[in-house]
Amino acid sequence: MTEISFLTLFLIALGLSTLVQWWLSLRHSHFVGAHRAHVPDAFAERIPLPAHEKAADYTLAKTRLERIEIVIGVTLLLIWTVGGGLNALDRLWASFELSPLLTGTGFLISLFIIMAILDIPMALYRTFKLETKFDFNRTTPATFFGDQARQLMLLVLIGLPLVMLILWLMENMGQYWWLWVWAVWTGFGLFMMWAYPAFIAPLFNKFEPLEDGDLRERIQTLLSRCGFTSNGIFVVDGSRRSGHGNAYFTGLGRNKRIVFFDTLLNSLSPAEIEAVLAHELGHFHHKHIFKRIVMMTLFSLAGLALLGWLIEQPWFFAALGMQQASLHGALALFLLVVPVFTFFLHPLMAWSSRRHEFEADAFAATVSNADELIKALVKLYEENASTLTPDPLYSAFHDTHPPAPIRVAHLNRVAN
Q1: What is the pLDDT of residue 254?
Q2: Which of 90, 272, 357, 361 is catalytic?
Q3: Would you call 110 helix, strand, or coil by DSSP?
Q4: What is the C-alpha separation between 242 and 139, in angstroms, rounded?
Q5: One of 280, 382, 383, 391 is an active-site residue; which one?
Q6: Which of 108, 149, 177, 285 could serve as a FRET partner for 416 with CA atoms 20 to 30 Å apart?
């Protein structure tokens, strides 16, 4: 392949993926807007029309913002690559005349910091304009910028030694360096899954053990019934930042935690919370987390093997705006460009995730109460202003959870 042919391929893939994203976003807006005035029959007695209209308006506002972000993302990608942004940053670090390892580490860490800073204006708009307009934002400017500072601190403290180790392996481990990098990256990912709940999440939120009472007894009984052990049941102060409610598992091995947002506990009954937890337990029962880890591990192996070949191709660098081939330059280009070519895998990944959600729902129906789960989901749809009428094609590309009517219909079937 030549420099011109790869550049042409990249631009075609970028243009096509951008047009598809834009088209899907417009379809979604039109579909949601067309169904704004009518609550789907399955929810007519449970969700009032004003709540349905709010969900539609919230979705339309988010989708408009999504289209702006598509344009910004494509513009920045072109500036970084064919526009010479990465090349300019590379020349800047080369001018310091450091060792190749320090030059590459500085280049990559500074790139990540610049990209994080460039994301702040849209995050500000999303938080203080869009979320505030629909009465979801609870974040203060001090909390917002404190979060940003902590994220940048973690990026440097964790990212710097990791990047340095990866570049050292790439330089010193011969032709098959990518196998060593893959092993380190996989180990790092597993370590972060284990360490996140105990050491990183508390930097951003306050976690309190769930108090004794009916809810805790229900949960302990459910866990015993399912043969599941965890390192604790915690309540997180999600209301400090947002009015959205959620519940999740986090951690790995014996460091697993069950976490409930305080907003969720305030809106659902104990029976409904038990049903939501039963759904989450379904993911562990069906080994969904393990399967996702295996899938992502295989994807990363294939990606690193591909990068191992691309590093040896001068046209890879020249086509994407870098005058000098380097290990750190190849990593940066690969991280920026790969999403363009993997965009059309999104429907397959979304389908797999939705299938897992159906399986978890079915498990919840066997160990808890499907009707309570339905009631909980309906409450969450309403309180989070989640649209009940997404465009089917947009949903197939983007949604990791089944659309509300399909999910509720599935729960009704497995319960009867």
Answers
A1: 66
A2: 361
A3: helix
A4: 7
A5: 280
A6: 285
Lookup: tokens for 266: 């305030």
In this structure, what token pair is assigned to residue 298?
A: 């295989």
Catalytic status, residue 361 = yes
> For the purposes of burial, counting CB atoms within 10 Å of the CB of 27, is it exposed (0-12), middle (13-18) or buried (19 or more)?
middle
Q: Which residues contact 141 (CB under 8 A, 6 or more apart)?
A: 128
Q: Are 403 and 42 in contact (CB under 8 A)?
A: no
Is residue 239 classed as helix, strand or coil in its secondary structure? helix
Question: Residue 65: is it exposed, middle or buried by C-beta count within 10 angstroms (0-12/13-18/19+)?
Answer: middle
Q: How far apart are CA 14 and CA 279, in angstroms?
A: 38
* Helix/strand/coil for 45: coil
d(CA 315, CA 3): 4
3-state helix, strand, coil in the chain (%, to 5): 75, 5, 20
**Phi and psi at residue 259, in whole multiples of 5°?**
-125, 130
Q: How many CB atoms lie within 10 A of CB 94?
A: 14
Sheet holding 257-261, edge to edge: 207-209, 233-236, 257-261, 247-250
Note whether 185 and 300 are within 8 A (CB).
yes
Do 61 and 134 touch, CB atoms closer than 8 A? yes
Going by C-alpha positions, the residue among 311, 87, 109 that lies closest to residue 95 is 87
Q: Can you give the pTM of this predicted structure?
A: 0.91
The alpha-carbon radius of gyration of the chain (Å, integer) is: 23
pLDDT score for 198:
80
C-alpha to C-alpha distance for 378 and 367, rounded to whole angstroms: 20
pLDDT in tens, 290-334: 899 999 999 999 999 999 999 999 999 999 999 999 999 999 999
Q: What single-letter DSSP state applies at residue 251?
A: -
Which residues in the chain show pLDDT less than 70? Answer: 253-255, 416
| CA angle (363 as vertex; 360, 367 as ends), nearest 5 | 135
> Coil, helix or strand for 24?
helix
CB-based contacts of 146, cutoff 8 Å, min separation 6? none
Q: What is the spatial distance between Cα 134 and Cα 132, in angstroms, rounded to a whole number?
A: 5
